[in-house]
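Exercise 3.2. Students should predict the tertiary structure of the chain below and write it as structure tokens, then compare their answer with the key that follows.

Predict this chain's 3D structure.
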Amino acid sequence: MKKILALMLFAAFTMTMSAQNNTLTETAKSAGWHLLFNGTPFDGWRNCNATEMAANWEINDQAMKVKRGEKAGYGQGGDILFGTDKFANFELSIDWKSEKEGNSGIFDYVVEEPGKPIYYAAPEIQVLDNWNASDNKLTKRLAGSLYDMLPALPQNAKPAGEWNTIVVRVKDGKVTHTQNGVTVVEYTLWTPEWYELVANSKFKDWPGFKEGPAKAGYIGLQDHGYDCWFRNIKIRKL
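Answer key:
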């Protein structure tokens, strides 16, 4: 009987915890947090440089899931953004997980340019299976990093199939990445140090990076051709 009761309590606890995904407490609301995804529809989300939501995304495991492409590592043009508001000073929190070998990204300050990809001028927070992905050779390309510019240190990402939480805070150009409760990246936009980072990265000849990023932009998610999930997407303006 005790064993049955324990199992019932565990099941109830699991259901309660599950129900908390993609919701906000009254305390969070009072602190200014707003959901960008409430667990069912894609309200507010659309393909970059388009008006409709990308077809290769679905709701799965209480999350927004981008589906694996026909050839792993090659997206299907499904980079998306939350297109109802641009953000300048903000705090963004997202839970993510990936399949084995998974690769994706979270973007801020996205500016749409016709014919240009979502990453044309937007800083990227790396989403990666650090152990198995092909893009794991450089520390500045591991999970939580400012992609190809600054490594996330200490590296504390969880393996494929497990949920990670990344919090990106931007205030007057000062940026921090907090991964699984630990601050792993710090930098300041629009400074000589920032442009030195650009000059030492793959973006050194990209006009969008040489000129920017913009002072405000959209939040975006990448389709890199792998199964990746995103939930508890919330933001507050600072």
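Discussion points: Confidence is low (pLDDT under 50) at residues 2-18. Helices lie at 2-19, 26-30, 192-199, 207-211.
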